[in-house]
Design a protein that fits this description.
Three copies of one chain form a homotrimer. With 213 residues, chain A is an alpha/beta fold. Chain A contains two helices and 23 strands. Chain A binds chain B through residues 74, 101, 103-105, 117, 119, 121-123, 135, 137, 139-141, 153, 155, 157-159, 171-176, 183, 185-187, 189-193, 196-197, 199-205, and chain B through 12-13, 15-16, 19, 22-23, 38, 40-42, 99, 115-117, 134-135, 151-153, 169-172, 187-189, 204-212. Chains A, B, C: Belongs to the transferase hexapeptide repeat family.
Chain lengths: 213, 213, 213
């Protein structure tokens, strides 16, 4: 009943998505990856195509795409891939791990990816092509923009609002009712307690180190 | 078999609790909220009462109350509501998400609320009217006082002991064997490695920001 | 079919493991603990042996050991117990909570312990005798060395590589592709954004405190 899937990208992020999709017994018709796919048993037995144009071999109405391009702060390849194929008429599958916890009152736009252990609470809205990574927490009433990456273990308290292309790093925390404007990068472990202007990088105090005597 | 529920409060925290209770097919006889309830489909079709006194329309033995007042550091409305209606003879329901992980050897006192993805380990004890919020971790042997709020993504290591009215902020971490006295506020993301005196606020170094060139 | 288990250690960590094993209906033939076992209903009805040598009462082929010694930074008792009984020919059971999330493409070596709510992603490898504690996140492609402790709520991003005897503290965050050499202690809440040399302690800025007026 659900359509076959064509994965774009063959790195670590793609491997995590395919892991989820294999558990859900989804049919994967191939991976499109100009670079060699990462070494992983998860890719075993899947056809690899080398050019983005190979996507056109597949009919828009018979498959859905999965955006397997990994999220990188200040690199918009992932967003470009999404826009490009949407413009041509392809649809992107929303990938949701069976091991995530999503409120029945939350909404996910097209192409959203929710990884294992992630929590999305009541009335949250997740914008198109965004990733809620492993164990990340999106509290009640959050509005997450398009092309966001909420990294593993990050926590957004109630009613946080992020605009387009925001990256919230690993283990970062944002308190309630905060607005984060577009193209912001919140560093790993950073703690955000006031609104953030567009195109801002927020990074935390670095850990101090000493060698054990 | 389980009693009908009357919810006190109609904001974001109430919405999260009702979301859980609806999944558990609990009967909700109404929401008591002097202010307009938050905009959420979760409230749809539930009667709204406007005065605290409307609670008295319901017989103490036929319903249980749910404390839907959101936790706020340095504001004890939530605790007052609990004490007031307990004194009159009402009982508060303990609300536990089916998506939380609670040891069979842990104990929860009356009115405790455990939200999705929270973990409560072996031999932990959670005091009356406390909230263990989404994805928070309470390790083995922790003793959590009454009227506490352990915010989303906070982690309390083994045998941490908190007294009454402690607030542990979003993503905060407390190492093992720490005592936290009453009326303490641990800020979001703070890291606690020694005991904390009563009525203390602990806050972490703020994130540094710069605008991307 | 699965073998009976003999637990070494009777403190908080042992209680958490026995809690998991009881849920899995595993037969526990005893606890070996020179010190009094911790007060916990979880130990109820289990025989206690007082000397390490009591292990020899049990045939190597008929039981498996469980390393219940708690992890402590800069204390290698847990590693010594593992090596000592392995050298004699005993096997250690791998203990995995039913409430953890482990990719089918991840690998766990002998004696690994994965506690409730922990997440281990695609292609991760966990070295012998290591603990992935409650709610910790091990992202795709991580290689975790032997005798590691990844504490509750810690997050290791993709392709982090730790060597032997590394301790990652409660709520700590490590960004992707980081190498952490042997005998490193990452303090609770520390944020690691570059490689760490052997025998280093990394600790974060302490929280600032003030008493509420």
């Amino acid at each position: 009943m659900s359509k076959s899937l064509l994965i774009i990208g063959g790195g670590g992020h793609a491997s995590v998505l395919i892991d989820i999709l294999r558990q859900q017994k989804r049919e994967i018709v191939g991976i499109v990856s100009p670079q060699a796919v990462a070494e992983s048993n998860v890719f075993e037995g899947i056809n690899v195509f080398l050019k983005d144009e190979d996507v056109f071999e597949f009919d828009k109405s018979s498959i859905k795409l999965v955006n397997g391009i990994g999220p990188m702060p200040k690199n918009d390849l992932r967003a470009i891939i999404f826009s490009k194929f949407k413009a041509i008429g392809y649809e992107f599958e929303t990938v949701v791990s069976d091991n995530s916890i999503i409120s029945l009152y939350a909404n996910l736009e097209e192409g959203v990816q929710v990884l294992p252990g992630a929590i999305i609470q009541t009335d949250a809205l997740i914008g198109a092509n965004s990733i809620i990574n492993s164990g990340a927490i999106i509290e009640h009433g959050c509005i997450i923009g398009r092309n966001n990456h909420i990294a593993p273990g990050a926590t957004l308290s109630g009613q946080v609002h992020t605009r387009e292309s925001v990256h919230v790093g690993t283990g970062a925390s944002v308190i309630q009712n905060i607005n984060i404007e577009r193209d912001v990068v919140i560093g790993a472990g950073a703690i955000i307690t006031s609104d953030v202007e567009p195109r801002t990088i927020c990074y935390p105090a670095r850990a101090v180190r000493k060698v054990i005597k």
